[in-house]
Design a protein that fits this description.
Blueprint lengths: L1 H20 L23 H5 L9 H11 L1 E5 L8 H11 L4 E5 L5 H10 L9 E5 H4 L29 E13 H4 L17 E3 L7 H13 L8 H12 L10 H6 L4 E5 H12 L5 E4 L6 E9 L6 H8 L8 H7 L2 E2 L5 E2 L2 E2 L19 E2 L22
Parallel strand pairs: 1-2, 5-6
Antiparallel strand pairs: 3-8, 4-6, 4-7, 4-8, 4-9, 8-12, 10-11
Helix pairs in contact: 3-12, 8-9
Length: 390
Amino acid sequence: MNALRKIAAGSLAAVLACSMAACGSGNANSTDSASNTGKTVKVDEKSAKATSISDFGGMDGLVAAAEKEGALNVIALPHDWSNYGDVISGFKKKYPKIKINEQNPNASSKEEVDAGKTNKGTDAAPDVYDLGLAVASTSTDNFASYKVQAWDKIPDSVKDKDGKYYADYTGIMSIGWNADKYGDIKSINDLTDPKFAGTVALNGKPAEAGAAFNGYLMINQLAGGDIKNLQPGLDFFKKLKDCGNLTTVDVTDGTIDSGQTGVVMDWTYNQASYQKSLKAKGVNWKFKTFKNAQVVSYYNQAINVDAPHPAAARLWEGIPVQRRRPERLVQGRREPGTARLHEEGRHRRPDHPQERHHHRRRSGELHQRGFHPHHHMAPGQLGQDHRQLT
């Protein structure tokens, strides 16, 4: 089934890339994450080949090896995306001898992997990735096999059997808009109203960005399509383009603040942050999900197989509990993607059912409620509500 999901993810993304290009959904402002600016680096082979914490002799050995490296390169982790600001701050506080180098916070999942390839063998390569399943499941040759200490407690359905990646957190696709300016939105047909001229946006390219990929799938479902019939969604976006309401502007905090993108299809955790920031400016930003088209995406943790700091990468990989502590979940409005996610040897259970923001164009995979659990695109073959993973 994993192989089937990989094929489905890649082929569906390719179909959408070609089809949506005709609707003008291309993005000419994509950030280049892959410029090579690093210096050649020699890594510790023992750390680079470690597949579990036991290869370091335990946590003390792993920490010592990571501190000896003295650095960790992360990519695509904006501070207001899923509370990563707190995660990074917490890591710095706990491991002050390890300098965190933050690269291109707005990179898509594809751009993350591209940066690893381009900077291979240098100290500029990312050590770790945070990826959507569509990219993660088709890029395993670029990942190191490493199973965190509580690996066995992660459901098989949301992890790679060889330890190449595991699901970290999830969100629900939604439509958000400036309610002060546009009033209520009851259905997607409302989006063809002339008052929305040039302001309705997907968040990125469907072939590269999870927000756009899954935003399209939500619209397709609402338009009467399903996983085997993508045409209704394509027809709807063509209608949006023809009436002048679809914009290809890259969605950012700035375009939302300015009103340039007044209606945005994005994750609930992004929408929650837009809502919070705009409220402080006196703007009423609303967002809604749809019971008959709830698309859920899972994001995954992975280690660059050519990580310049392999021990630090493995230390980072094993502490996702830092962003799942209940008080941080409330701040970050995010939903963990695995059953009882953990620090090496520690367990915590989150209590908040939603997630938080950034405009990052993340590549993802989906689970649509109402689909049969064995549909190709359902991560983890989940047949019940996605909250069963929390």
